[in-house]
Amino acid sequence: MLGLNENKEQNELIITHMILPKQKGTSDSCTTMNEEEIFDFQDQHNLITIGWIHTHPTQTAFLSSVDLHTHCPYQLLMPEAIAIVCAPRYNETGFFVLTPNYGLKFIANCRKSGFHPHPTEPPLFMVAEHVKIDSTASLEVLDLRIGKS
């Protein structure tokens, strides 16, 4: 989960926090647990969710069919929402959104679950062009997986 504060003076959203929730995972999936801990932290720090981050340890940075479905509700609630994919084997980090004129509606109407094929044309996702990286900005990381079972 990515939390942010809003800079109303400059009309921008700034990612200030990365929250790693308790989770259960397999080699190709992850399920969040105890989500109320995330909401409590966000409420206490006046944060909203701007997106999510995950890895593709053995693949490149892209959005899989499961990723597309995971991201869809984020972007339906907030058009600026982003999906970040870190692909360490290829030293890639991708910042993605569903295409607003096609992908968002297509995925919102898709009723399949799990990994399944989608058409590649027209594109369902694209690079999030509104994202600007500031390597000098601070980021607070809250790892809710640590110290609790």
TrEMBL record:
The keyword Acyltransferase does not apply. The keyword Protease applies. Its cofactor is Zn(2+). Residues 1-111 form the MPN domain. GO terms for biological process: protein K63-linked deubiquitination; proteolysis. It holds the Pfam family JAB. One of its GO terms (cellular component) is membrane. InterPro entries: JAMM/MPN+_dom, MPN, STAMBP/STALP-like_MPN. Coiled coil: none annotated. Keywords: Hydrolase, Metal-binding, Metalloprotease, Protease, Ubl conjugation pathway, Zinc. SUPFAM superfamilies: JAB1/MPN domain. GO terms for molecular function: K63-linked deubiquitinase activity; metal ion binding; metal-dependent deubiquitinase activity. It comes from the Eukaryota. Belongs to the peptidase M67C family. This is MPN domain-containing protein. It comes from Tenebrio molitor.
